[in-house]
Amino acid sequence: MVTVVFVIVVAVRLLLPLLIPRYPLPAILASLVVDAADQTIFQTFGFDPPGYQGYDKAMDVYYLAIAYLATLRNWTNLGAFEVSRFLYFYRLVGVVAFELSQVRALLLIFPNTFEFFFIAYEGVRSRWNPLRFALAWWIWAAGLIWVFIKLPQEYWIHVAQLDFTDFMAKNPWVWGILAVAAVVLALVLWYVVRPRLRPTDWPFKIATEPLPEDMNTAEEQAAWRASTRLISWVTLEKVVLVGLLSVLFAQILPGIRSTEVQLFLGTTVLVVVNGAIVLIAARRAVTTGSLVVAFAFRLVVNSVLVLLAEWALSSAPGDIKVWNALFFLFLLSLLTTLHDYFQPVHAYRARHPEPLPA
Fold this sequence. Notes:
The chain has 358 residues and is mainly alpha-helical. The protein contains 14 helices and no strands.
């Protein structure tokens, strides 16, 4: 029974973030809830999985990476997108630096503002057209989240290393303060903020808007990719994204033989080879028409490449850590596939920005 529960929870944490590109707000909120509840679920069944902290960090990094890639596909406000891009990579660099140095203050200097900014944008988009809000508005939103939400949270968790459950058990009177604060906040939102909100543009939306008409098919996206170059800023972003994530997972998962530099260079080669294959296929008008099929094909290709590299370079063939290798290949194949499918949509919007609403 314990094994079944563990497999179900891990499967949920792997599969649930895949809904973020289509249902951003409910999917990321659900990912947050599962993230907060999984350890409690394990403990309820009398199971304390070994290496839980590493597993938990890996799942957090995984779903935030998919959330960032979803902004490429969905976000129409290009200013808000650039803010989110900075926040995501800023945090990613900080987490990698922390894992390599174990200096906990780095997590305070590089807070995870991206996650709450993503939620804020999608909360706005659920009722209003995001194009109504200028770049300055989004910068202010990010700044307020950074200073008043994330800095206290990062200090509490990573610097002071306090546990909320233990703290509340020792100080039950805090529940009263939190209850009063919640009532005051609700009253302020209802009587002060709500009357000052601009009229909504549409009923509450869960799903994302349709893609631009010229980019809503795999063939049109492939045609756009065919006009790009392999050596470009797009490839550089993929290299940095996948390379840093690989280095980060190498610090979390046991049994990784490669050094950080070797791992980064290895993933760079795979990313570039993947990009070359995609570019050749696009220029020859070869497309699967399905994101799932494209991911499966890429996973097979990458597995073959890694096995060939292991056979050619390893002094002890067969010594590769199978599960770690599969996880890395899954991560690399998924992220590069999503990036290749979503980046053309963002590039199209950058070249053909939607008109501002009246």
